[in-house]
Amino acid sequence: PVKVKKIVCIGAGYVGGPTCAVIAQRCPDITVTIVDINEARINAWNDKDFHLPIYEPGLEDVVKSCRGRNLFFSTDVDKAIQEADLIFVSVNTPTKKSGVGAGFAADLNYVELATRRIAAVANSNKIVVEKSTVPCRTAESMRVILEANAKPNCRFDILSNPEFLAEGTAIPDLHNPDRVLIGSLQTPEGLEACQSLADIYAHWVPRERILTVGLWSSELSKLAANAMLAQRISSINALSAICEATGSNIDEVAHAVGHDTRIGPKFLKASVGFGGSCFQKDILNLVYLSESLHLPEVAAYWRQVVEMNEYQKSRFSKRVVDTLFNTITGKHIAVLGFAFKADTGDTRESAAISLIRDFQKERANVNLYDPQVEESQIWQDLSEASPELPLETIKKQVRICSSSMQACKGAEAVVIATEWKEFKEIDWEVVYQSMNKPAFVFDGRLLVDAAKLTKIGFKVVTIGRGEL
Ligand code: NAD
Ligand code: UDX
């Protein structure tokens, strides 16, 4: 197999950046260049004070250890493609907003443009690796595009190598992955390319955790893994509604159920609903795939996982309104957390966006605090969620605060939307003194000690816990 010396990664986002930075860190003999058409993003990756474009614990140390040594960030996509032996395609694949499959299918425009660029400028053989999450058989489309546009004597071998990192834990996930998955055609050339990529990961991942499978299985496994993880959350969230109506406690139920070694304890945390750029998008993609294959029952089965998530979010905001004596008009609600989970500044599909939109519709005032999310991002997300409202109107209803304490002051209720560790360390005695009474805490993340807060004087409402 080809011994890879130079890698280019097209797409310097949440996946391309951390993944290829870790490859550079663990493979000092390989030169890694991460390219993007977004100049501001590349400038941030090159920032001399390491104000990187994404917040991820441990990322700064990785970049510090190899940037300028064998890790480079650039906007010169063509040059980097020409020099590389192996190309990761790690561009975004969002849900299509219009046209055939709108609202379900993946938008493959960015993948296609990147593939066409590779074909146009490459003047030697390349291993092309799908890192983006793509529908089943996308590798075949890439092959057709590459072969139709390639210069003579250029061969392309296509691999699928989906990424399983979760945001917030990207660096430990990459350093110590449960598995690395590589899919290839089962031809001698395909298997050889697969070996070249496996040899890169083998610099730090034990060989038995590097799984090699067929191309189509690899592509489908990524959608399947995300669908099954999200399904666990929707299952536990569906049960949380039963708990609230019966006086059972979802934490106790999850604990009891998860102790069955066949089920396992992970991903059974009831919440205000899952968010993030992947789960919803990838399940909708699977739904679309099932429908295209004329499997409507299969499509309906997976679609329900997303529907349950929508229900969970709206159920929670309704519970807030109901509890606050059926009206929140003119009341002040402190929303703690805007990111879709802790330890990230990413807000894509965050449950907080839906909650705040619902509170705005009820004409409440929202005091919002998140330790990482940029203000400009908050305004962009809230505007997109309520396209009928001018930004000025939104800004009158939502105030961005610089601490939990500031957000809670004078409020009738606190809503915990993200499980940031610092929210566990809030001095609730002091918060209680500063709030209007009766003071409510709505815990959408099973984060606070409800008994302790009740003792202070709060009325505490927790996901998946009944008041019976
Ligand atoms: P992202 O939007 O953060 O990054 C994608 C980057 O690609 C952007 O910076 C964009 O400017 C760049 N880009 C697009 N077209 C380009 C082109 N033709 N040439 C150069 N650059 C181009 O997206 P992300 O979150 O990193 O996700 C990337 C892929 O990885 C998606 O398919 C996603 O489903 C998958 N994935 C994401 C996660 C996650 O946790 N975010 C996890 C696993 C897999
Ligand atoms: C997910 C997959 O976990 C990862 O393997 C894949 O590569 C990308 O998609 P990510 O979206 O970054 O990762 O975060 P994840 O930790 O999976 O959380 C997704 C959402 O589910 C978050 O909103 C989180 O708060 C929520 N969640 C997670 C729960 O509500 N309960 C849980 O038990 C776990």
TrEMBL record:
Domain UDP-glucose/GDP-mannose dehydrogenase C-terminal span(s) in chain numbering: 334-450
EC number, as in UniProt: 1.1.1.22
Enzyme kind, highest EC tier: oxidoreductase
Binding positions (NAD(+)): 11-16, 36, 41, 91-95, 132-133, 167, 278-281, 348
UniProt keyword terms in alphabetical order: NAD, Oxidoreductase
Binding site for substrate: 163-167, 222-226, 262, 269-275, 340-341, 445
Pfam families (alphabetical): UDPG_MGDP_dh, UDPG_MGDP_dh_C, UDPG_MGDP_dh_N
Catalytic reactions on record: UDP-alpha-D-glucose + 2 NAD(+) + H2O = UDP-alpha-D-glucuronate + 2 NADH + 3 H(+)
Domain of life: Eukaryota
CC annotations in GO: nucleus
Catalytic residues (UniProt): C278 (nucleophile)
GO biological process, one term: glycosaminoglycan biosynthetic process
InterPro entries: 6-PGluconate_DH-like_C_sf, NAD(P)-bd_dom_sf, UDP-Glc/GDP-Man, UDP-Glc/GDP-Man_DH_C, UDP-Glc/GDP-Man_DH_C_sf, UDP-Glc/GDP-Man_DH_dimer, UDP-Glc/GDP-Man_DH_N, UDPglc_DH_euk
Family listed: Belongs to the UDP-glucose/GDP-mannose dehydrogenase family.
Name of the protein described by the UniProt record: UDP-glucose 6-dehydrogenase
Protein's organism: Collybiopsis luxurians FD-317 M1
